[in-house]
Amino acid sequence: MKGKIKHLDFYVRETLSNLERWKYPRIEIEKDDKNLFLGSGNAGSVAKIFAEKFNGVALDASSYKMFLERSIKRDFASIYIINASGGKDGYNMAKYIEEMNLRSNLITCNKDAPAKEFVDKISLIPALKEPPTYNVSTYSSMIYWLFRENVSEIKELIDKLKIPDLRRYKYIFFLAADKFQNIAEMTSEKIAETLEGIGSNSDGFTNAFHGILRQPNKDRLIFCLNQKCPLKDRENIYELNTNSYLGLLLGTYYVIGKNQTDRDTENLLKNYQETAKALDWKIKKIF
Q: Residues 36-75: pLDDT tens digits?
């Protein structure tokens, strides 16, 4: 690894310093139940947030082909691919959609996105230069474009956070108010991606209590996002409360970053390179 790569908490601070300075594209998305939003990994969760705002259906890298293959009319209003790099599965999605004689648009942070040859329009969202997979500024910028939430309040939230020692636990479950389930998905994936030796999962409150938290687990932390946990007398609990998609995301990423080690980062970058080679991802320099 060349030089010392900074951790997630650094990029949280940098992102918050830039969100209000950046110029954002004008993206005309009309509300329509026939919209499709596609994304892979955490972009799949962001695609769900787009669908919540603009209506329609959100699909991830494992579901989009099956959905399109069984769709009879295919009279979609608009198809948007959400992908920070515009490569990897974003490239595969765009190519597949064109092969089906459909047209798509790309929302990305990469002006040289490999997928651009297959799409009608690219909307370029500003972001920082970050290590592969971090995606702190990329998806934060997209969420900020969606909601324009109060950045000053998020900065204050970050400043006041008490940082738990996540290494005390073998497993972290993100329990979210139903409205913020998609943020919980992103934070859960970021734990699994970033911290060695810690398992993670997530769900919205209503669905989570249909079996997931039946058994007590002294090695588990329940990380609550805008949600009180009724199991507080038997579980390890950490609460983060703010009525903000972006605040919950960046607050949690900040906590993760404060627990991140250089070894975690080395593992992540090595795995990313191995995965890219094994899956033949189309990747160019992102920034």
A: 999 999 999 999 999 999 999 999 999 999 999 999 999 9
CA 33 to chain centre: 23
CB 43 within 8 A of CB 139: yes
> What is the enclosing helix (H) or strand (E) of 239?
strand 236-240
At 50, the amino acid letter reads: F
Q: How many CB atoms lie within 10 A of CB 164?
A: 17
Between CA 138 and CA 247 the distance in angstroms is 15
- Type of residue numbered 177: A
Query: Largest alpha-carbon pair distance within the chain?
Result: 56
C-beta of residue 116 within 8 angstroms of C-beta of residue 105: no
Q: Are 56 and 32 in contact (CB under 8 A)?
A: yes
Its pTM stands at 0.93
With H, G, I as helix, E, B as strand and everything else as coil, classify residue 273: helix
